[in-house]
Amino acid sequence: MNERVAALRRHSLESRPYLSTERAELITRFYSRSNESLSAPMRRALAFKHLMEHQSIYIGPGELIVGEKGPEPKAAPTFPELCCHSLRDLDVLNSREKTPYSVSLRSRKIYEEVIIPFWKGKSIRDLIFEQVPEEWRASYEAGVFTEFMEQRAPGHTVLDDKIYGRGLSDFSNHIK
């Protein structure tokens, strides 16, 4: 293993995962200021544009493949428009034994004062839960199943693992 790869590996192993509020703050700011008379697809498109214009870009030293889901390695963004985490959720993330995500006091305060109040009753999860029958909610509360967006961010799977075995050039050639 060369020195560059060894340094990248060390950095990856030594970094502690944490919850980043950057995306949640940006998306909340956008939706709190956007025109509600626009169609939902138009608002989503403009929200995406807002994220692309304002989100941090991380390019680490020595990286040949760049890009992170958050402002730096192991920074996990949240998606309050899908499912807004409660303060209890943040406590669990911060303290669980397996795969913990550190939640700073600043992040907790932002959730408590800005994110949670704005998204209460507006997230896709909240809107879905308003529409489902009581039997469905009772089954959910009993733990029969979980609602998918509580567990993962959208796009958490990458091309059914095919990209790692084939590569982008193979996909491009196959498409041609």
Shape descriptor reads globular
The biggest sheet, with number of strands, parallel, antiparallel or mixed sense and barrel status, is: 2 strands, parallel
Give the SSE order as H and E letters: HEHHEHHHHHHH
Strand order of the biggest β-sheet: 1-2
> How many beta-strand runs?
2
Structural class: mainly alpha
Low-confidence stretches: none
Number of domains: 2
Described by its quaternary structure, the protein is single chain
What radius of gyration results from the CA coordinates?
Answer: 19 Å
Separation of the first and last Cα atoms: 36 Å
Mean pLDDT: 88
What portion of residues belong to β-strands?
under 5%
> Residue share in helices?
40-55%
Number of helices: 10
Write up what this structure looks like.
The chain has helices at 3-14, 22-33, 40-54, 87-95, 105-119, 124-131, 134-141, 148-151, 162-166, 168-175; strands at 18-19, 75-76. The longest helix has 15 residues, at 40-54. The protein has two domains: 3-131, no CATH class; 134-176, no CATH class. Strands 1-2 form a two-stranded parallel sheet. Helix 2 packs across helix 3 (40-54) and helix 2 (22-33) runs parallel beside helix 5 (105-119). With 176 residues, the chain is mostly helical.
